[in-house]
């Protein structure tokens, strides 16, 4: 996180806030170096994408995934949790996919304590824990993952690949038009939220 802890806190659940505070408080002790040292090391990184940089830190220096993500979030110009609009703009570039994103958020908006958090590769919907997430697909579509079993609706299927979001989201539905974000999708979001 950079200099905007209040903005970052707005897109984290209480559980995430505690976890992140622990990562920050113990970072130097657990990683063996100061954040400034890690940022200096990153200047030599040959990789250009976030995922590959994370993997480089892990393989070259043995840094854990969470600590590597923390280092990357502190790099100059890095899009991070404290800039959700930049993350959203970078991920949801396609106007049609963005319309689907907004329709899903609107369908979930009445859920008490809803935390919508933009990430680098998906948008997370949480209360205490993540109960839904979505990512854009090619062609102006979006994939919505839910903390439900695929049998909960004929529209749901099991994921065809491992997603970046929580493994607890064991059902997905592909959306291609905002009209598909209907009363049934709103109900599925409520049911996934209730399971949280």
UniProtKB/TrEMBL annotation:
<dbReference type="Pfam" id="PF18899">
    <property type="entry name" value="DUF5655"/>
</dbReference>
<dbReference type="InterPro" id="IPR043714">
    <property type="entry name" value="DUF5655"/>
</dbReference>
<dbReference type="InterPro" id="IPR025629">
    <property type="entry name" value="DUF4287"/>
</dbReference>
<feature type="domain" description="DUF5655">
    <location>
        <begin position="93"/>
        <end position="193"/>
    </location>
</feature>
<dbReference type="Pfam" id="PF14117">
    <property type="entry name" value="DUF4287"/>
</dbReference>
<protein>
    <submittedName>
        <fullName>DUF4287 domain-containing protein</fullName>
    </submittedName>
</protein>
